[in-house]
Specification:
The complex is a heterodimer of chains A (223) and B (431).
Chain A: E1 4-12, H1 52-64, E2 68-69, E3 76-79, E4 89-92, E5 99-107, E6 113-125, E7 129-131, E8 141-143, E9 150-156, H2 163-179, E10 193-200
Antiparallel strand pairs in A: 1-9, 1-10, 2-5, 3-4, 5-6, 6-9, 7-8
Chain B: E1 3-6, E2 16-19, E3 22-25, E4 34-38, H1 65-72, E5 76-81, H2 115-122, E6 128-133, H3 139-145, E7 148-151, E8 171-176, H4 179-189, E9 216-220, H5 230-245, E10 249-253, H6 261-276, H7 295-306, H8 309-322, H9 331-348, E11 354-358, H10 382-387, E12 391-399, E13 402-410, H11 415-430
Parallel strand pairs in B: 4-5, 4-6, 9-10, 9-11
Antiparallel strand pairs in B: 1-3, 2-5, 6-8, 7-8, 7-12, 11-13, 12-13
Helix pairs in contact in B: 2-3, 4-11, 5-11, 6-8, 6-9
The chains are: A alpha+beta (223), B alpha/beta (431).
């Protein structure tokens, strides 16, 4: 039996404003629902307007990981119902992501050089957050401050063979993101970092947590 | 000279869902003019329902860009007009707040979906109104009620604040009794808005000119053939003769792909509807969900109870046309048809400046006479939405005392030209 790991990493990009509106992303110390506007609340009639800086940050990462940047990139809607999802769809990328086919070099468990292939990077918006108040079983609260925060999803091929390799990969990736100044590990209140592990025995079938659940969010590795 | 307009309409046609008895106005190009707004356009502080129970009681905290601009130019927003629920229909009969009647003949429908706006203008309750048009929803009621209505080029008017059911086809546009008023209204609402990514910065600043000499008008055979009432065809032909008399040159053209327009429009609309209407879940506005139930159960209940049958039908249809295994068969095909229609129009516009024909194949009918979305509605109007081109409907006579509309379509961003052609016709027959 052999462990095979591929990762989907969701990075909160360190832009000043959200992905499709002008609301500030710096809500860490503020009250719930204070960084909201018609667009990130999904009010009827509001339209998204793409944050240029978020695209630039995404492209920075793409160049750093030696990826192919697509000439034409496309946003798509992922339709599903959930109380934290204001429009009942998430604006994300499907067919034509920002960039494809990159690499990150790490050390394997024997100390040899190893290439982890990057499948794709794409931009998407974060949903709001459900708050389950202790003792209140009849309702949950929703905080939309996070709704519309830009995420860069980085997907790898299943190239890692142990949890230690995966950890080294994430440390390396984090260093790159911080060097590029697209990710601020200190700023995020909850977590700037979400990982979905896909691991399985060698037989080839892969298990995948899908859609990525909030439970799979973890604090950043270096903390 | 800002002030408050006292507005108390004698609304026998049920044109308004909400009337504002005291409407503030200011200075500007539209100072003190009463303007009615289709109820799917957001108005800060005024209930905006899209004629649906699911938005009953929803008061937007913000103005649509077009409404902001109207206010800046001093207009008095006097009310919100009735429509088919979320703009889906061509009779204003699917409204949750009861049908609107045609002021010309109360036994007949005013057309739709912007039937309330058309009726309010035709009945003389307001001089102008904003409608919205995804498959003919401005032009059809304009034709049925005997007024002027323009669907602008896609990208000419900001959709910010428009609660679109099919945003890739829909535009806000002016409706009024005269071409000149339509021109006045469009010149206010085309100012650039970066919040609509599909908008181009091409404001309309034009005074209508009645000079149509040297103009080449294409007459598409498809607009005078099967399914079009012969008396309407004759009336519209006569109207085009008037333009010829003014020096325009006419030439027969063919746009064979328009026969795919109703089906393509139906599939694209339904697909977008299934996604666009998903947000109405009772969590943030409108009738509230029962929070004691599991959320999916509560969602189902609130949507079942508050969305009308037409809306639910299209949501189900659109969910099918976008699902894996069917999207290629329906949605992708509809997009291909749309591209073909767009190209066909581009080809024709190499040879002619505008295309003219009837707006609707029939005059205003009685409620219940026509029901299928594919049967009649949109056959002659939907092509302009699919191609993104401007199209105006101007009254051009009547059949059995019911108004007939002459439709003039033009090249993208040549809204000025279709307005000029309609103006030339209107001036000639009025004088």
């Amino acid at each position: 039996m052999k462990t095979i790991i591929g990762l989907e990493v969701h990075v909160q990009l360190a832009t000043a404003t959200k992905l499709f509106c002008g609301c500030s992303t710096d809500y860490q110390d503020d009250n719930p629902n204070t960084h909201c506007c018609p667009t990130c609340l999904g009010l009827p009639g509001a339209l998204p307007c793409l944050n240029k800086r978020a695209v630039e940050y995404g492209l920075r990462v793409a160049k750093a990981l030696d990826m192919k940047v697509l000439e034409e990139s496309e946003f798509a809607r992922k339709n599903y119902f959930y109380p934290d999802l204001v429009k009942a769809y998430q604006i994300t990328q499907d067919d034509r992501p920002l960039a494809v086919e990159g690499t990150i070099e790490i050390e394997d468990d024997q100390g040899h050089e190893k290439i982890v292939r990057i499948t794709r990077v794409h931009l998407e918006e974060d949903p709001g957050r459900l708050v389950h108040v202790a003792g209140a079983s009849k309702y949950s609260l929703v905080d939309y401050n996070r709704s519309g925060i830009p995420l860069l999803e980085i997907v790898t091929e299943p190239d890692m063979r142990s949890p230690q390799e995966a950890r080294r990969f994430l440390n390396k990736l984090r260093t790159i993101l911080e060097y590029l100044e697209v990710f601020d590990g200190d700023r995020e209140g909850v977590c700037g970092w979400m990982q979905t592990y896909r691991s399985k025995v060698q037989s080839g079938s892969r298990s995948r947590t899908y859609p990525p659940t909030r439970a799979s969010r973890r604090p950043s590795p270096s903390r | 000279m800002a002030g408050i307009l006292d507005f108390s309409p004698d609304d026998r046609c049920n044109a308004f869902i909400t009337a504002c008895t005291g409407a503030a106005f200011g200075d500007g190009a539209l100072a003190g003019i009463a303007v009615a707004i289709n109820d799917n356009i957001s108005t800060a502080g005024i209930q905006t329902t899209c004629a649906s129970r699911i938005l009953e009681g929803y008061i937007p905290p913000y103005d649509a860009h077009a409404v902001e601009l109207l206010k800046q130019e001093g207009a008095a927003i006097v009310g919100k007009t009735n429509m088919d629920e979320f703009g889906m229909g061509s009779t204003t009969g699917t409204s949750a707040f009861g049908p609107t009647r045609n002021p010309i003949d109360p036994e007949r429908v005013p057309g739709g979906s912007s039937g309330g706006s058309a009726a309010a203008v035709a009945a003389g309750l307001v001089p102008m109104a904003l409608g919205t048009d995804a498959d003919g929803s401005i032009r059809c009621p304009a034709a049925f009620c005997g007024i002027v209505g323009l669907k602008p080029t896609y990208g000419r008017v900001s959709r910010y604040g428009l609660i679109a059911h099919a945003g890739s086809l829909e535009q806000i546009g002016p409706m009024a009794r005269t071409v000149e008023d339509v021109s006045r209204l469009i010149s206010v609402i085309t100012r650039y808005d970066p919040r609509d990514s599909m908008m181009l910065d091409q404001p309309y600043s034009h005074r209508p000119s009645a000079d149509v000499s040297d103009l080449k008008i294409g007459i598409p055979t498809e607009y005078f053939g099967e399914g079009v009432d012969v008396r309407i065809a004759t009336t519209v032909r006569d109207a085009i003769d008037v333009l010829e008399g003014l020096g325009a040159e006419t030439t027969p053209v063919s746009i064979p792909s328009v026969r795919y327009a109703p089906a393509a429009c139906c599939v694209i609309c339904a697909s977008e509807v299934s996604s666009n209407l998903a947000r109405f879940d009772g969590v943030r506005y409108g009738p509230a969900v029962d929070t004691r139930k599991p959320w999916h159960e509560a969602y189902r209940e609130v949507r079942q109870a508050n969305l009308g049958p037409e809306a639910r039908l299209r949501i189900m249809l659109g969910t099918l046309t976008l699902s894996a295994g069917y999207a290629g068969k329906y949605y992708a095909k509809a997009l291909a048809a749309r591209q073909r229609i767009t190209r066909d129009f581009e080809r024709v516009f190499c040879d002619v400046d505008v295309i003219a024909g009837p707006t609707t194949p029939t005059v205003a009918f009685r409620p219940g006479e026509k029901v299928s979305p594919l049967s009649i509605a949109g056959t002659l109007t939907a092509p302009a939405n699919l191609a993104g081109i401007p199209a105006i409907s101007v009254p051009c006579g009547d059949v059995d005392g019911l108004p007939v509309g002459l439709q003039v379509m033009g090249r993208r961003f040549e809204d000025e030209r279709v307005i000029d052609v309609a103006y030339a016709y209107e001036q000639e027959v009025r004088s």
